[in-house]
């Protein structure tokens, strides 16, 4: 897998330190609120796992599978819910944990959907942000890193279900996905 990586954008140690910092901020924000932390599968699972291990407050977790990409490198423009939450969000403080915000389409869809379900609050924590790719206005309250408009993999992010287990964020060589 390493030979498929053009550059390492964010090394393992830098990831760990930033996740700890985010967890500290979130612990302060959500103390006494018992948030429901929602992991957007599959890409955010490693990030969320490390994030909540470093949060020192009561919280609950749930999982959602949403797709707007399939095995493509660009969004299809259509958001599909593959797995909805198991818990009710009515009257809850929600924290959506996402791996990367690209176009913003999926996230804006989720935020609207959750607000329509009568939540107390909905905030977003994304490991990565690609602001120059944004086509939809969406608030990201907590961001780990802004990244350039390149195809990134590792630490949960994939291409065709591969590379998720890399311990860093790297740029995939173009010949792999073109």
TrEMBL record:
Subcellular location, record wording: Cytoplasm
According to its UniProt record, where is this protein mainly located? cytoplasm
Q: List its EC numbers.
A: 2.4.2.8
Sorted UniProt keywords: Cytoplasm, Glycosyltransferase, Magnesium, Metal-binding, Nucleotide-binding, Purine salvage, Transferase
- Keyword Transcription regulation applies: no
InterPro entries recorded for this chain? Answer: HGPRT (IPR050408), Hxn_phspho_trans (IPR005904), PRTase-like (IPR029057), PRTase_dom (IPR000836)
Q: According to its UniProt record, which reaction does this protein catalyse?
A: GMP + diphosphate = guanine + 5-phospho-alpha-D-ribose 1-diphosphate; IMP + diphosphate = hypoxanthine + 5-phospho-alpha-D-ribose 1-diphosphate
Supply the Pfam families for this chain: Pribosyltran
Which GO BP terms sit in this record?
Answer: GMP salvage; guanine salvage; hypoxanthine metabolic process; IMP salvage; purine ribonucleoside salvage
Q: Which cofactor does it need?
A: Mg(2+)
Assigned GO CC terms: cytosol
Query: Domain Phosphoribosyltransferase spans what residues?
Result: 14-159
Transmembrane region(s)? none
List the Gene Ontology MF annotations in alphabetical order: guanine phosphoribosyltransferase activity; hypoxanthine phosphoribosyltransferase activity; magnesium ion binding; nucleotide binding
Q: In which pathway does it act?
A: Purine metabolism; GMP biosynthesis via salvage pathway; GMP from guanine: step 1/1; Purine metabolism; IMP biosynthesis via salvage pathway; IMP from hypoxanthine: step 1/1
Query: By its UniProt entry, which PANTHER family does this protein fall under?
Result: HYPOXANTHINE PHOSPHORIBOSYLTRANSFERASE (PTHR43340:SF1), HYPOXANTHINE-GUANINE PHOSPHORIBOSYLTRANSFERASE (PTHR43340)
Report the sequence similarity comment from the record. Belongs to the purine/pyrimidine phosphoribosyltransferase family.
Q: What does this protein do?
A: Purine salvage pathway enzyme that catalyzes the transfer of the ribosyl-5-phosphate group from 5-phospho-alpha-D-ribose 1-diphosphate (PRPP) to the N9 position of the 6-oxopurines hypoxanthine and guanine to form the corresponding ribonucleotides IMP (inosine 5'-monophosphate) and GMP (guanosine 5'-monophosphate), with the release of PPi.
The name this protein carries in UniProt is Hypoxanthine phosphoribosyltransferase
Underlying gene: hpt
